[in-house]
């Protein structure tokens, strides 16, 4: 099947144990964090929330129960799940052992992602995203909540009219770097080295770094190789070892098909 309009952007799940568990194949070791647990739970959550959201979306316009049920089935048909699965490239996102098929059930995989987004972002963001999927002409748009989830306080307080309002800063503070903000090719940016080491450790991969310095002392060139399970997956060259290692980690991230790699 095809769609006349692009799919809405999938809400982003924050980097951490939960993120890594979602995009790791079941056969790979998972974090021991109590917050993660069995990821299959989120397929159940996703299925119930998808059905509820779709039914609620159409119930106002459809007055007949049989028609409503048929509309819900059509909106959540296997073909729709396969289309979303392909368009969001979920097959590419999952990290798998060699020779293992990433996803064998596109519907279950999509529903697990839905449940994970609900757990990570809450019902409002998830609901808006689902409605945009099934009804592109709807006015509902998925919006990411603020990082704190708090409403900004008012600039004055009626109960304290004489309280001075603090002056606005001359310029806004620079934004904090995001661990999971993607680069142009989809590979996470800084701190890529820490992120790579964390994810590789969770997968219990054997990672080694080989560094070599050439050139005159005042203008050295560092070359670093990233070996995973004794195979080279990334190489970097830069004026210092840290930059070279970052580049090697970035290449290895993409070569290993870690989450977000192109």
Automatic annotation (TrEMBL):
Gene3D superfamilies noted in UniProt: 3.30.160.20
Protein keywords: RNA-binding
One Pfam short name: dsrm
Biological-process GO terms, alphabetical: RNA processing
Spans annotated as Disordered: 138-183
Keyword match RNA-binding: yes
Molecular function per GO: ribonuclease III activity; RNA binding
Annotated Pro residues bias: 150-177
Top-level taxon: Eukaryota
Domain called DRBM: residue spans: 191-258
Protein name: DRBM domain-containing protein
């Amino acid at each position: 099947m095809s769609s006349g309009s692009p799919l809405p952007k999938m809400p982003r799940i924050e980097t951490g144990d939960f993120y890594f568990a979602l995009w790791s194949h079941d056969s790979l070791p998972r974090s021991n964090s109590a917050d993660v647990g069995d990821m299959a739970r989120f397929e159940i959550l996703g299925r119930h929330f998808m059905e509820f959201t779709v039914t609620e979306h159409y119930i106002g316009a459809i007055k007949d129960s049989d028609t409503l049920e048929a509309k819900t089935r059509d909106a959540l048909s296997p073909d729709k799940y396969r289309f979303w699965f392909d368009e969001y490239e979920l097959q590419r996102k999952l990290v798998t052992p060699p020779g293992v098929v990433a996803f064998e059930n596109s519907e279950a995989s999509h529903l697990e992602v839905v449940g994970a987004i609900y757990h990570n972002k809450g019902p409002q963001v998830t609901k808006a995203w689902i409605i945009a999927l099934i009804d592109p002409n709807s006015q509902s748009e998925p919006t990411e909540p603020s990082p704190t989830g708090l409403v900004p306080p008012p600039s004055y307080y009626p109960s304290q009219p004489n309280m001075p309002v603090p002056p606005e800063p001359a310029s806004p503070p620079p934004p904090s770097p995001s661990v999971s903000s993607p680069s142009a090719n989809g590979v996470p940016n800084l701190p890529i080295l820490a992120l790579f080491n964390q994810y590789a450790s969770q997968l219990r991969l054997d990672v080694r770094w080989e560094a070599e310095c050439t050139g005159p002392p005042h203008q050295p060139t560092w070359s670093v190789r990233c070996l995973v399970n004794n195979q080279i997956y990334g190489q970097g060259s830069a004026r210092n070892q840290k930059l070279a290692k970052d580049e090697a980690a970035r290449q290895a991230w993409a070569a290993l098909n870690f989450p977000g790699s192109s």
